[in-house]
Specification:
Length: 144
């Protein structure tokens, strides 16, 4: 049996309704994606902590100095730590937290701590010798 005139009319009407509703929903979704308020950059409300600037001095001269720079110096150079006094500006000895040259800071650190204990780079022979002697070696530094 063929569909009668009224059944065809309702089928076309339902298809038209679905198309209209799909178009309406699509336009609402697309309208929600665009526009909006303009974005602005948030202002800096406080200054970065002192001493956090990137190191601009000479490169580490050898792997020991590089290890010192990464493991120790980077943690103590800031003004809220040792770098407040033990730097090239204030000059409290030893100046192991100086910001101008990590090589000089390493040399200063060696005046109070032996490199084998500072960088843990002692060979097994040296470690055994230090263990049998009792304590790790330390250099005496005259106090002023």
């Amino acid at each position: 049996m063929k569909a009668t005139g009224s059944a065809t009319y309702f089928a076309r009407g339902r298809n038209s309704f679905v198309l209209v509703m799909t178009g309406l929903v699509a336009s609402i979704l697309l309208a929600g994606c665009g526009g909006g308020a303009a974005t602005t950059e948030n202002p800096l409300t406080q200054a970065p902590p002192p001493g956090t600037a990137a190191y601009a001095g000479p490169a580490a001269r050898d792997p020991d100095v590089l290890r010192f720079q990464q493991e120790f110096w980077a943690n103590v150079k800031t003004a809220d730590r040792c770098g407040n006094c033990h730097n090239e500006s204030v000059g409290q000895l030893p100046t192991f937290a100086r910001n101008d040259d990590v090589n000089l800071a390493y040399d200063e650190a060696l005046t109070v701590v032996d490199a084998t204990s500072l960088l843990c780079r002692a060979s097994s022979k040296k470690s055994a010798a230090a263990t049998t002697a009792g304590t790790p070696t330390r250099r005496a530094v005259p106090r002023s």
